[in-house]
Amino acid sequence: MDQSGIADRRRLRRKLTFWRIVGLLAVVLLVFGLTYAGGFAERGEKARSHIARVMVSGVITANEDLLERLEDVRDDPNVRAVVIGIESPGGTTYGGEVLYKAVRDISAVKPVVAEVRGLAASAGYMIASATDHIVAGEASIVGSIGVIFQYGNISELLDNIGVSVGAVKSSPLKAEPSPFSPANPEAEEMIGRLVADSYDWFVDLVAERRNMTRPETLAIADGSIFTGRQALQNGLVDAIGAEDEVRAYLGTRDIDTDLDIVDWEPERSRGLLFGQAAAGLIGGMFGNSALGSQVLSAFTDQKLFLDGLISVWQFGGQQARDDWGNTP
Length: 328
Description:
Helices cover about 50% and strands about 20% of the residues. The protein has eleven helices and ten strands. Helix 3 links the parallel strand 2 and strand 3. Keywords: Hydrolase, Protease, Serine protease.
């Protein structure tokens, strides 16, 4: 190729690179604009009187972001009432406790209703019981009132591979139960007392909130789960239905039933959504459409380990995620 052809090819390559960059910036700006336009629209909805809906989903922990949102809807004068949407198998007893108290704080200043989307078990039901009124679907799962303490034991595995673990303790019950040795009877008794005390607290809480006697509550607090229909019969929920029944109850509390229900979602989720989209686009521009999302996942993916006392039904499900599907 002569010098003129080489120069033409270089100019063409520079133009192609320039327009690639311009195209990338245009697409990124478009994604950015669409993402935050939704945020502006949401803030506009929140600027007028409305009913706030906050979702509690996945495995429950002491989620600071969720607690802050509950405080915000409690204090916002434009929020006339609150709907707590629940889709959870439960979680840690402490996570359920702090969210329960946050919902009770809302109830002290404005009406709050639980809408069971499909599952409100264990700590999930604990949070539902904090509301003024519980609405559940006919086939939803409700209940599993109880507490469990789980721990692993890998002593046989260590024996098989020839590994021993020693320990010097200040007292026999220190750091018991241990995964490196079978639990002794004293340790099991100690954990039993802990579980029993938390269970008693849970039972008394349900009895108080559902206006039951303790014997009535104990009769259904054996870990059993119930359909929404059964839960209505045994007093664990107040109505069968969904949004229409939620609005009907709020109407009895002097709340305008025509008010919009606005989902209060995590503020940070919009930024993460933008970041995921941009990462994917950048990866695509460089010949690998999965590159951006893979890198982002390496930094955002977190594993949930629940250690100790939990109140959960069928533990082993997915980690709790926020309204946008992101791990908190």
